[in-house]
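ok so dumb question maybe but i'm new to this and my supervisor (M.) told me to 'just get the structure for beta-N-acetylhexosaminidase' and walked off. so i did the thing. is this what she meant?? sequence i used:
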Amino acid sequence: MLQGIPPHGQQHTLRLRLWPAPTCSGKDPLALQPGTGHLNPLHPNTYPLLRKVLRDLAALFPDSFLHAGGDEVVPVYFQDVLVSSTINAKPELLPKETTILQSWSNGPHNTKLITSSGYRAIVSSSAFYYFDCGHGDFLGNDSSYDRRGDEGNGGSWCGPFKTWQRIYDYDITNGLTTKAAKLVLGGEVALWPEQADGTVLDARLWPRTADFAEAMWSGNWGETGMKRYAEATDRLDEWRYRMVARGVGAEPIQPQWCLKNPGMCNLNQ
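this is what came out, is it supposed to look like this??
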């Protein structure tokens, strides 16, 4: 799947040896990472390029959906074309029957906006599901770290670190009507690789991804109407040790003593 259209377009056109790429340029041509200029919607080569790429992808993959991206635009290049205080896309451009919208910002608010408009949604809220958060930033010479007495978010735009408890606590259909909740297809966690590689991959993903999976598949509420924190802790701790035994470098969530004494490490007995 080709992701990141339009803001991460330059890297794809470079890989495809298509240069000059129809990307935006100027004072601030970058998206979040260097070298990822936007596809310019006014450039005459943009749409022929997209047609060729999408045609080739459709021939290679049997998938019925394409992730079109569209995140992290620098608004100055789109203010006269796509971005305004109110974006009113024509319904025929985004037919509800074939369109799924994925939300990564503004948590429940954006999920409600999507579903109240009749679209299906996938939730990837950065406030809960971004596993790279809480590790600072990859940019150097950043004076924002010079905060005496005010640590802020530690230099991570989406800080703090997303603990397994915070992930498990998030109810992606909270505040939605029964009809709107049915339009939420599920969730997706994200681990962006600016500061992650194979040396830390296991610990960044596990066991938090397993914790997320349980919340998606089984919910985070028990039969009594209470959150299942206590039993989830014991279950996740045991699962973490099973993963380690299988060679997965999952990070610990409790001291080993807690595993051998179930329930004894709970704050409330």
